[in-house]
């Protein structure tokens, strides 16, 4: 509890936090609205899943989430605050858990604001008759996107703890998120392409946003989010392991 | 300045992890370029399975498919004919419909035999681009505009004189207008001369909203009536080129009282990569550039933010009070190092990656030496300028996580959006103004105005030429570095 309070104070008083949280919302909503405004629809069909389209901004928002999570760890190492932290609270795993809880809570709160606004903007910008998926699927896509951003925060936090350098950690996170889909596009073998789509954190995790043609997805929406959760768990495990085994 | 450069080189050299990051960048490009998962079927199932593509006199792949009514001609000579009618049909899933392809061609041709890709020169009327004189697939010259109709026939004349061919056109057969005189090197004494008709594939986007193109297309055919021939028979007819010219119904020729009616399908033009294009371009070997980009961005950012973190910047600026020069020296050292590394790695990947792909049975579109050189140097320039842009973001934002993200988002995200979710119009717009425009340097398949195709980013066609794309990236870099220099002057270190 004491650890949670300490981590919350650090996050709250860090100068960038409120701007980054606002950035998550702004980036997600702005890119989503732009994508919906740019699309050319024919009558009732936009050629794409309208719900997924109205959440396009997740692509940009997740990068801001990654910055927030990486800075929460990396900032502490670069200023030497980490030594004070672990002297005051020697149970290192407790500190990591508290930090993960606080950062994820902040990200989920921002995402819970950004996602409904993006979806409402999509609803307003896209032709009404194209926006007709079942309500349960819309709810799943929205709630799933909030969870997706929370898991991205955990993934970034774990990698930053393992690497301790903000620059290297953010590079790794952005590489995992953005470069794997580009490499996937270049693979011509359909079986390999499917395997990559099933295992890459972004393409698997974003399956949660699909509301139509579910049978064409490389894996089911919740299974996709599960793959991302495995990535996040793996990164946190790696972070915990290096945290215990190394000097601060 | 020399001392400054030396100091900055020493700092780069001793930056923790920089060797690891550089090796990782090079390794990612090499691994993804030389150990590709691509497998093809060309030549792997015995000699019958060789992928033989027509290659033109310039070493590029070409389409050479048309209906040819010809006779041999030895030495110099002339052929004259009148095209009195030209119609076109499109063959869609629901049957034939009347629609002339804008680049449907009917006219006179002199050609070095019937082998696919052999040299030729032709003067022709087209569906919507008037009279043209074309030769050796790549070269096109415009003549008088206007379509052929029954009331407006078009006279054409082709003259061989040694190694030069002259194409002329006339509205009435009396007043002649020279369209072009072109050189055709190494032409044997005996060539084939005659009439030809062809009509290229059409392609249209099924849904403009999809970035990942759903293209629909199919063959077209054209029929032209030739009369007032000045050469007498015998004539032989031959359908040259790919299977489409055999499968399309109605292709062939029919003698009339005054000449011939010829129907053809196909094209005599450079081959283009597109939704229906076979094979991969040499750009495919450079897919690792994206991974390398992340590494050089991290190096570029860490090169300056590391100084802030360790307080080194105060010493640096105390030693060199002219702060702008520090930034310039850093940019020069970093840019030159990344360029050198990028050049070496890109050269290895492009040269040996093609061999690996061919060995795996993948058909690699041929590219000229100049194009390969441009793609290699362009990749090195792209990585180099991108690392300097990252340095600028680092100097401006001073926090490595924010700076790395800014650099990656401005370069990689626009590319990813353009290739996947954005509609074609927005994708092209984004690839004009964002730093991702510089990926145009890696385009290895040229765009030809005389070949109708969907020239879209996700089939490897960028809206800007390579040098302009690099200029866009350089402008971003100059702007960010300028802002950073300004801020460095104004603020305490």
From TrEMBL, chain A:
Taxonomic source organism: Rhizocola hellebori
Lineage of source species: Bacteria, Bacillati, Actinomycetota, Actinomycetes, Micromonosporales
Ranges annotated as spanning the membrane: 53-73, 93-117, 137-160, 167-187, 222-244
Name of the protein in question: ABC transporter permease
Alphabetically ordered keywords of this record: Membrane, Transmembrane, Transmembrane helix
Transmembrane recorded as keyword: yes
From TrEMBL, chain B:
One GO molecular-function entry: ABC-type transporter activity
Keyword flag Transferase: no
Recorded superkingdom: Bacteria
Transmembrane segments: 12-35, 286-306, 327-353, 373-396, 403-422, 464-485
GO cellular component: plasma membrane
Entry annotated with the keyword Transmembrane helix: yes
Keyword vocabulary terms for this entry: Membrane, Transmembrane, Transmembrane helix
UniProt-recorded name of the protein: DUF1349 domain-containing protein
Organism of derivation: Rhizocola hellebori
